[in-house]
């Protein structure tokens, strides 16, 4: 797994190993000699060919904090209302420096929404940014009108209200902007938040569920800071995916998780623009995956490493009572430290349920030929789906509401080379039927909305849309998405 990940980063792309300073972050500036490339349809100007930076160790100098849980404006029975505002502000990410950031209901990132299956939800959305944005609910099964894709622009100062009923099972989802040509920049500045769905099944599973105590949200994001510790996207952007050299988790630079030696649940979101994370522990201990993007696996799966492409989520259980020392680290390839974990007192570990879900794959689907083929090709500005760039006036596919079709997703290798592409579909949770004709590995045997494919891989997935509307499908490397590696499907 690790070798494949390293090899697939980029053909011919140089990596810059940056020198650290006292904050563990490096200022990056751009010289006039940089090649100039512009993204199709982007609102941002400047070079799109900056170096993809090598990630440095997280030094663990700051205590990890967790997003606040958003309180409802009102709640009557199953009817619940919330308000979310996208806004600009400043955040002291480094001592003595105020970094310009974006956030929801605050200066950086957003609060965690906790919804329950069966609730009728109203969300009042407001844009206080100096630019247009959208509110996209990544992984949520809602109508196209509520999905928040690029068609749903909210101009500065405008407000919008959406309504939907929660009809899917417990899952860890997230929300972020999705304006065409400007998603990467807005996410990079801080627009992202978590959305939890809960159901009656969760309480019976005996899982760690005390938010911020033994049930930890972990939003992984890599960032590069320029002069004055600023997040200036135009000075670091790369058309094949913007990589930072500094680890930011839950909006904290170089954080450390402090907890007891007990069973903990990590809900990991790869919220980076492009970087893949092959997460494992530096002491080589095993952990247990219990959930994918869209909910619980049928049964816990023990493993020692897990690949997460941009936009993907996974829930894992880690028995920290087995850590002999007082320190262990979640690491990436080459053992680059993502999250140091300091452990203190030993607490008794909870025995979690061994049966989590009852997902059944229709065997007839395994033999069915695909009715839709998505071919992802190219690199940099040449990225396409089925040889085309996104056109909001063109409908690429149609599908009937409630009907299951088999899609084939092809991560093609061209004369330019190939790279990992995480493929995402709005408005649905799909099931992976096969990868290169073989049964998917355990980490893919749950509901998914994003699948990360190596160069040359083909996956077949079973796709069903429960609602009507126009939905996007695209590479979740945000720069590729902005550059037109996206199509749309109309569900009727």
From TrEMBL:
InterPro entries: Cu-oxidase-like_N (IPR011707), Cu-oxidase_2nd (IPR001117), Cu-oxidase_C (IPR011706), Cu-oxidase_fam (IPR045087), Cu_oxidase_Cu_BS (IPR002355), Cupredoxin (IPR008972). Residues 26-48 are annotated as: Disordered. Pfam families: Cu-oxidase, Cu-oxidase_2, Cu-oxidase_3. PROSITE patterns: MULTICOPPER_OXIDASE2, PROKAR_LIPOPROTEIN. The keyword Acetylation does not apply. Residues 27-47 have a biased composition (Polar residues). Residues 1-17 form the signal peptide. Residues 90-201, 243-322, 373-491 form the Plastocyanin-like domain. Keywords: Metal-binding, Oxidoreductase, Signal. Belongs to the multicopper oxidase family. This is Multicopper oxidase family protein.
